[in-house]
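Quick illustration, no need to memorize.
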Amino acid sequence: MEKTATAAARRSLAFVGINAGLALHPADSRGAQVPGEPASCFATFWRADWSRWGAGSALLVATLQGWRSYGTNEALAKTLATELTRYFPEASRFPLTGIGHTHDEFTVEVDPATGFRATGHKAELAISGILDRRQFTAPNFQLGEGSAALSNVYLPCSTGRLAEFGVEWPGTPAVYPGPLGPSSSAFIALAESWVL
């Protein structure tokens, strides 16, 4: 007990901003998710209003063929991938062995009533169809052998779109009931903070 309290006391704020994520699962001709099929990709957009690694935005895309990042700050993108994103449950099936980076600048639109859009010259992530809005806290979110305190306002969503170089990824988010309300592999996390 004392060891846990000491470790928690040494933690410090590492990130404040927004995180939006989308895992796309195979869909049938009607656009319905094919049951039991794993996600073909996971994309997450980070907007660091402040972080110990600097401010800025990054789009990360994880696939079985590798990881890619988009943004103006390659170091920030790689750090967000290696320190946080790789440990997300949605990213766990996509091994992180390296990250290819493409310079891109994003216009970001966020509306808690309607959704999220990050539009770059080379990549785009859009998430909409908000199903719920609720506070989320995870005081011991596992990051490999360590842990972090995570909190945000969680907005699960019913629809999402990811495009790279004008090519849209096929598939649909997985929406499912949770103990506190609906959950989804398409989400927007507002007022997000990480304490490491």
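The CA atoms of residues 1 and 7 lie 10 Å apart.
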